[in-house]
Amino acid sequence: MKLFVRLLVNALAVAITAYILPNVSIDSFFTALVVAVVLAVINTFIKPIIGFLTLPINLITLGLFSFIVNGVFIWYASQLINGFTVGGFLWAVIFSIVLSLISSVLSIMAK
Q1: Helix axes 65-80, 29-41, angle to 10 degrees
Q2: Residue 84 has what DSSP assignment?
Q3: C-alpha–C-alpha distance, residues 46 and 62, integer Å
Q4: Residue 78, class by beta-carbon neighbours within 10 Å (0-12 exposed, 13-18 middle, 19+ buried)?
Q5: 86 forms bridges with which residues in the sheet?
Q6: How far apart are CA 64 and CA 14, in angstroms?
Q7: Cβ pair 74, 39 in contact under 8 A
């Protein structure tokens, strides 16, 4: 049940973030739910490997490189999912930052 609530909260965060940012668009809430699921799968299986491989540059940049990695994941998800478009790599990085902020606020509110 917690997983389902978490996915709904993340889908709502994706929809709100796409509404706020001008160069990001999403067709429907179902598409936002698909984006949330795809990002959850990427973060579960691929991010630990990439995080380990980029550990030296992450240490040098004091963790700021993780925003770039998240932007790459967002941009990749936008290439995979029809109905979810991001207007470039910079907007994917901005989307990841705003998404993490909105998702954090919504997760606190959902508890």
Answers
A1: 130
A2: E
A3: 21
A4: buried
A5: 24
A6: 21
A7: yes
